[in-house]
Design a protein that fits this description.
Elements: H1 27-39, E1 61-68, E2 73-80, E3 88-94, E4 104-105, E5 111-117
Parallel strand pairs: 1-5
Antiparallel strand pairs: 1-2, 3-5, 4-5
């Protein structure tokens, strides 16, 4: 795995059912965020996602995403941090400065990796294709 420390203790996130979606009350926030992204040339690089949990992860686990281009599907699964083949962070959460440190990147502790992804097709079951 790449040198990405994702094993910092995570504060819990709301369950999906409880997480508040983006709405009209967030219009000013979104405009401000778009302005910051545009100023730094990142409008086509970053966006928003709703932070939520479906289940807890242990400190030595990370959520990883694989894809199957042939069937046009995405798969998310839990893997052990020290055993995953996924090398590219694809989702992060912002941290208050006081929560930085282990597991946060960059050194000032402003964000933490939530999910990894890879360009390799590692979807479950694909390793047995053609074994008929």
């Amino acid at each position: 795995m790449a040198d990405i420390n994702v094993s910092a203790p995570r504060t819990s996130l709301p369950r999906f059912e409880e997480a508040e979606a983006l709405g009209p009350q967030d219009a000013e926030f979104v405009r401000d965020l778009v302005a910051v992204l545009a100023r730094h040339g990142n409008l086509n690089r970053f966006g928003l996602c709703l932070l939520h949990d479906h289940f807890p992860l242990a400190p030595d686990e990370v959520l990883v995403e694989t894809n199957d281009a042939r069937t046009r599907t995405l798969h998310a699964q839990v893997e052990k941090v020290d055993a995953t083949q996924h090398t590219k962070a694809s989702q992060w959460r912002f941290l208050p400065h006081a929560q930085g440190g282990q597991g946060a990147e960059p050194d000032d502790g402003t964000y933490q990796v939530l999910q990894l992804c890879t360009t390799l097709d590692l979807c479950p079951g694909r390793e047995h294709e053609g074994d008929d």
